[in-house]
Write a structure and sequence with these properties.
two-stranded antiparallel ribbon, 10 helices, binds iron/sulfur cluster, 12 strands, globular
């Protein structure tokens, strides 16, 4: 369902409320929005009442159960890690492929499951400067984890406009949150079927919008991977095909994952950051039949006063 809100609401609720993580979803399909110096900017004040910017932003609303159903066809059994079909530990076997994420992208290219990959440029160190890689060499030149933040999702929109047919995006969990709203939207048709594969790297970043982030692994990706340990969650059929191809080609080796370890890290992040989400809400909280004041909710954690 479209939400009748626009750029002004996005500014008020997300950007000026310190929840923006510069993911680029708001500007992916709006030429009025651009990103400069780590900020969302716009060319002119906009009179659109139902903004694609507001509707695609992962911080305007993130209805997790609904997105689980839309993306995976079912709700999650695992509250820490989200919907996944397989957990593995992947180790790089062919060192020329640089790391497991790059090996997966090369395997996806081999399969012709993707014709380009949007990744952060290795040339820029302190932020994510997105580039479109069309060849294996370019993927390998930009392998590795990027520091900082950047509008990868906007570049995925550019890749669609450049007529790529099967686009991969490698980003953080918040990029996948914007992308899942785009990929599953029936309200705004923007050729989103061209986004074929989303790979996330596990994330404990501490940028401006991160204190309210509840996603450690990238719960709406096709493959979520810990760039350091190689532990990975396979969430979709295509994700499984890509992993199998990488293993069969001898790019990676697969072993059992430490699921408990992943769950612990994910739950630590969720519980600590959810308190910050609640703290930001000074209004009413609705649950079942009742609406309660936030002060009342916070009082539940306090010791009863002695009478
Ligand atoms: S879509 Fe991303 S970049 Fe745009 S306001 Fe929302 S969080 Fe910020
Ligand atoms: S913690 Fe990571 S995934 Fe979450 S908002 Fe920050 S950068 Fe994005």
């Amino acid at each position: 369902m479209k939400t009748e809100k626009c750029l002004a609401d996005l500014q008020l609720e997300v950007i000026y409320n310190d929840k923006c993580i510069q993911c680029g979803s708001c500007g992916a399909f709006c030429q009025n929005i651009f990103y400069e110096g780590g900020k969302v900017n716009y060319k002119e004040q906009c009179s659109e009442t139902v903004g694609v910017c507001y509707n695609f932003c992962p911080r305007s609303e993130l209805n997790v159960p609904e997105l689980d159903i839309k993306m995976f066809g079912k709700k999650r059994d695992n509250q820490a890690l989200g919907v996944y079909s397989k957990a593995v530990k992947a180790t790089l076997k062919k060192s020329s492929l640089k790391d497991v994420t790059a090996a997966l992208l090369v395997a996806a290219m081999d399969l012709k499951a993707i014709d380009c990959a949007v990744v952060g440029s290795a040339k820029v160190d302190k932020s994510i400067d997105p580039v479109i890689c069309t060849k294996t060499d370019e993927i390998l030149a930009n392998a590795g984890e990027r520091k900082g933040f950047g509008p990868l999702v906007q570049m995925a929109g550019n890749a669609i406009r450049k007529k790529f047919e099967k686009i991969a995006v490698v980003g953080r969990p918040c990029h996948a949150q914007g992308l899942v709203k785009i990929r599953t939207s029936k309200d705004f048709l923007v050729n989103q079927d061209k986004i074929a594969l989303v790979i996330t790297q596990f994330c404990l970043a501490q940028g401006k919008g991160c204190p309210v982030c509840l996603d450690y692994t990238g719960e709406f990706a096709d493959i979520s991977i810990d760039a350091k340990s190689g532990e990975a969650l396979i969430r979709t059929e295509l994700g499984q095909k890509v992993l199998d191809k990488a293993a069969k080609a001898g790019y990676i080796e697969i072993a059992d994952a430490d699921i408990k370890g992943m769950e612990n890290k994910a739950m630590n992040k969720k519980t600590s950051n959810f308190k910050k989400v609640l703290a930001k809400n000074n209004d009413l909280l609705a649950a079942d039949y009742v609406k309660v004041d936030m002060a009342w909710l916070k009082s539940l954690g306090e010791e009863p006063k002695k009478t």
